[in-house]
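Aim 2, interim progress. The first record below pairs a target sequence with its structure tokens.
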Amino acid sequence: MTDLIRMERISKFYGKVQALDDVSFSVREKEIVGLLGDNGAGKSTLIKILSGAVPYTTGEIHIRGKKVDIRSTTDAIANGIETIYQDSALVTQLSIARNLFLGREPLTGPRFLNRMDTVTMNRVAGELLRRVGITKNIPTTTPISALSGGERQAVAIARAMYFDSDLIILDEPTNNLGVAETRGVLNFVRSARDRGHSCIFIAHNIHHVFQVVDRIVVLRRGTVVADDIDPKKTSIEDVELIITGMTDEELAGSPVH
């Protein structure tokens, strides 16, 4: 299996603080990679670099073996990378359908009139919401401001589902979601791989990670401490030990809170 994305020796400084130290990270074609680590491990910084939201200090990024320069979110999208953050930016005053197609609206009639195809937008939006597990009959004309946190996250997921990119990055996609919505997100991740796409999946809920990923990478204090963990051959407990850097003896002696 060949690499779709390879980040080589990536370092990132915020002033004198080093958030990432010589990190190499790859995602293969049709692979779901779980990126794990405690708070402050560098996960968010790494994906923000890959998505163009944060510039890296040193290192290189390669897509299908070709070196690319990703310095903005526009660069990332142009290179087939779509990112869904935990706090995905949605325009709260606009409708669900408008947010799903924001900046990429389909047009109808003569192109010089620049008239949006609202019928198509609403139809597709309704189908996508059902695919991510929203069973309530929410009109696609509903403004984002009227939705719950979980419903907003589902809209962001639905947007990535429609604009299938080579790589979809999901940062805490199941956070604040109900059972049905969580199931829809996990099913989406699996179906994305089946359709030939790759994903990076970040979640504090390690059980969700184990349900969908092919490989697990662990960051600790800005460095990669494990990059080839097979969830089918490794227990959740073992991965938790790697994340914390604690031995079984240290964990046994830790106070219970």
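The second target in this work package is listed in the same format:
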Amino acid sequence: MSAFNNPSLMENVKWTMLGCGGAAIVSYFLTPVVRKLAIKQGVVDDPNQDDRRVHTVPTPRWGGLAIYAGIVISAVITFLVAHRPVGNYIWGILLISSILMVVGALDDLYQYKAKIQALVLLLAGVAIQFFDDGGKNARVHIYGFDNPFTGNYVHLIWLGIPLTAIYIFVVTKTMDTIDGIDGLTAGIATIAAATLSLIAVYEGQGRVAILTGATCGAALGFLRHNYNPAKIFMGTGGAYVLGFTLACLSVVGTLKTAAAAAIFMPLLIFGLPIVDAIVVVIKRIRSGVPITTADKRHFHHGLLARGLSQRQTVAVLYTAAAILCVIGLLLIRVFGTHK
């Protein structure tokens, strides 16, 4: 059956586009309001704070507030208009995201230690697994995966809880660590969310499609203000919200539907920030410095050092991220099961 003759698929496309468009509008128009609030509260990133910063003028943070508002407002309205049940795990993602938004906003003010941030993110990764609608496709939890080499299903049993929490932590934290130049994290999040939306629509996961669509729109609406030269940064809270939401939705939307391709999907959809983090950690270990040390070892710093402008750098990294996501979509097309 042609996709355009499939009423269920076209319904999912419609509501996903509504969620995306609504979130883009909310975040776009709310960002200037948040910018004024951040300036008033003195939440401004000083370029002279350390030598790893690449912006030249003080820039307000807290842009994540607009991103979070765009996701929540658009997603909830879309669920209501579409007469779709929201589901416990969706509420869980929104609730825990709000907590991470608050923690991140406070971190922008008080600069919490890396250990505290790690603990918060790991606890969030554990907590979301208790929001259960019943069934493997209605809980943010990695039960197991298909071994792509043998075809056998590997049951994780009790290891699923810590593995899921660690996976969510890695994706969330790496989305934060790449937030070093104008528009990078917002753009990467937009690409990843769009990819997850397409997968969810193709696999018939309407709820995942709506929330990923809203996440894509919220990141895109904010990107208009965050693209070089940035008028505002998303801050720790924004990176946490985007990373956590996308990580959770990828567990439900790809790791449980892509069959043999599932094990490779995170390395493709979130490949750029994950590989960047791995490379940075290896470099820091070899240099004998703590892995939590903030420095100029990230991919974007390397490209800037080679003479590329910020816009050229993000264009290169956007392209790399998009190529990885296209490969992921092709794997879904070959190995996935259209429901």
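Residues 1-5 have pLDDT under 50 and may be disordered. This observation will shape the mutagenesis plan for the next reporting period.
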